[in-house]
Design a protein that fits this description.
By secondary structure, this protein is α+β, with helices and mostly antiparallel strands. 60% of the residues lie in helices and 7% in strands. Strands 2-3-1-4 form a 4-stranded antiparallel sheet. A hairpin with a 4-residue loop joins strand 2 and strand 3. The radius of gyration is 21 Å and the shape is globular. It starts with a strand and ends in a 10-residue tail after the last helix. About 2% of the residues have low confidence.
Amino acid sequence: MKTYTLHVTGMHCTACPILIESELDDLSEVSLAKASLKHHSVEVTGDFGDKEPEYIARDLSEVLKPHGYSLSVERQRHVAQWTDFKLALPIALAFAVGFLLLQKAGLVNLVNTGTVSYGTAFAVGIVASLSTCMAVVGGLVLSMSATFAKEGDKVKPQLLFHAGRLVSFFVLGGVIGAIGSAFALNTTATFVLSMLIAIVMLILGINLLDVFHWSKRLQPSMPRFLARHAYGASKLNHTLTPLLVGIATFFLPCGFTQSMQIYTLSTGSFLTGAFTMGSFALGTLPVLGLISFSSFSIHDRAYAGVFFKTAGLIVILFAVVNLINSFVVIGLVPPLFSF
């Protein structure tokens, strides 16, 4: 048994170390894998025979490649692709204009009384599924799909997974809302919760830009053991496994999910919380459904940089508006839009 420290390219959020460890731990030659987002590395302990570290990194990279990661012996210098913003910025601005037009038409309510409408929750779900949810839940879906594909069952597990995800977000969102009703949130508490949502989303957006490497360390996450159990469950081949994995996604370290959960707590209502989280989950369904029924992956595409930078700019837009919204709540500034 020997331990090798390999450098990882492609890590972008707190779910990445969990996914990398889960995939590597499944290999017969690996006895232990411990990944670090802070150092963008993974320590791998195992029996690799007479292989040189370069060949070990190459072979393990093949396992991680479908998830957008690669390993190397030497640390890879991070290069910010600023040219991607030439396309990302106008696309994000077009999205912002379109969203505000929908608001003016009364279809969504982004800024008004400090509430998040179901239409807005659905839109946030779409953005989430195109960014962090794709990485966090997408890897889980691909892992589960591969497990059941070996048995020739491709459709039923996917349907059970998405059904479990939608139902759990609805029910558990309602539970969080009901818990919030036990607390009489005053203006200060509402302000603090709004600020937390804005800060979490701002960190998410900055991370998606992939410009400031240090910002990835700031992203909050669920307890590590919960996420590890969720990924571990995806490898079990049992009829009810997809349903249970779908339910477990409510507890995975996706910053968007966490920010929506914080907001849901502030609603103090079972029904409002249930429909808010249900709308959010419904917004993630199209992209996650595409991932689960195909081998779709954006990480290794030529336009991946533009794609994630566009998503990051849109997320930052949501974060800034939520930040302004928190000041609206305490009366420091008037509502940003008057329609």
